[in-house]
UniProtKB/TrEMBL annotation:
Pathway: Cofactor biosynthesis; NAD(+) biosynthesis; quinolinate from iminoaspartate: step 1/1
Cofactor note: Binds 1 [4Fe-4S] cluster per subunit.
Name of the protein: Quinolinate synthase
GO molecular function, one term: transferase activity
Cofactor: [4Fe-4S] cluster
Similarity comment: family membership: Belongs to the quinolinate synthase family. Type 2 subfamily.
Keywords assigned: 4Fe-4S, Cytoplasm, Iron, Iron-sulfur, Metal-binding, Pyridine nucleotide biosynthesis, Transferase
Tree of life domain: Bacteria
């Protein structure tokens, strides 16, 4: 990554000086993902890996809820995020009082909360899930019905794979809600033989047109294992960029949508975060223990 070399060199040096580990989500740009990250993955992998980090400092390259999750699992460590304004339309779609109202409306029905939420919302929940384990988590509870928040499309896609009744909140990911079934049909017409992988935050009609739906890690694994000649990853743009670096022989077709929140994280901001040791994630003590429990219950589901 020649143009990025000065920042990358400085970050690699600062990482050693600060004894810091960089965790990066699959939607981070390639110079971050391949250039400076120690650990990469989907939301579930980043949460699991956060429990294994031994270094005293974690720098999370991703959006704020991911950094909060890392801090929940590592209360004694310093968890930095290069830009704390990196939000998420799903996390913004629901508040703790919304969850309390849902509980009043559906007494006794457990609340399954997608990790794309604030710690305060997690604290009102029984258990968390990611797109990588949502069906397993819902079924682990052994109940006839669950409240599933906040992604309405993920909820519908989970409902299609289980007999458990799903009461859904209607939040949406601003990146994935924009894909349409017509987009997929056009892609197939324009690129014969293309294998279509979609993220389950897409509307169910889009998932229905795909060859495979799965988390960002599941998409990577699909490409690595199946080695399609031509593939489209219907998701955030950096996903294809990162996977394509590893499989130059595969033809990646790229209509994609950028996540403006993920794109707030840049090499200069990572460098500054390590130079100044800001911005450190601080959790509200009133929600920390309950939020951690919901995440730990998820991690215990195998
Ligand atoms: P994954 O857990 O699949 O990485 O998804 C996170 C996300 O924010 C998708 O938009
Ligand atoms: Fe949130 Fe969607 Fe961005 Fe993922 S891609 S962080 S769900 S807005």
């Amino acid at each position: 990554w020649p143009g990025f070399a000065p920042d990358i060199d400085a970050i690699l040096r600062l990482k050693r000086e600060r004894d810091a580990v960089i965790l990066a989500h699959n939607y981070q740009t390639p110079e971050i993902f391949h250039g400076v990250a120690d650990i990469t993955g989907d939301s579930l992998a980043l949460a699991r890996e956060a429990t294994r980090v031994e270094a005293p400092v974690i720098l999370l390259c991703g959006v704020h809820f991911m950094a909060e999750t890392a801090k929940l699992l590592n209360p004694a460590k310093t968890v930095l995020i290069p830009d704390s304004a990196a939000g998420c339309s799903l996390a913004d779609s629901i508040t703790p009082s919304d969850v309390r109202l849902l509980r009043q409306r559906y007494p006794g029905v457990p609340v399954v909360t997608y990790v794309n939420t604030s710690a305060a919302v997690k604290a009102e929940s029984d258990i968390c899930c990611t797109s990588g384990n949502a069906v397993k988590v819902v079924e682990s509870l052994g109940v006839p019905r669950v409240i599933f928040i906040p992604d309405g499309y993920l909820a519908a896609n989970v409902a299609a794979q289980t007999k458990v009744g799903i009461i859904a909140w209607q939040g949406a990911c601003e990146v994935h809600e924009r894909f349409t079934p017509g987009d997929i049909r056009q892609l197939r017409d324009a690129h014969p033989g293309v294998v279509v992988l979609v993220h389950p935050e897409c509307p169910p009609e889009v998932v229905a047109e795909a060859d495979f739906a799965g988390s960002t890690a599941a998409m990577s694994d699909y490409v690595a294992n199946e080695r399609p000649g031509r593939v489209v990853l219907v998701t955030e743009c950096s996903m294809s960029d990162n996977v394509a670096v590893q499989f130059p022989e595969i033809d990646f077709i790229r209509p994609c949508n950028l996540c403006p929140h993920m794109k707030r994280i840049t090499l200069p901001k990572i460098r500054r975060a390590l130079e100044t040791m800001t911005e450190a994630v601080v959790l509200d003590p009133a929600v920390t223990d309950r939020a951690r429990l919901a995440v730990e219950r998820m991690l215990a589901v195998r």
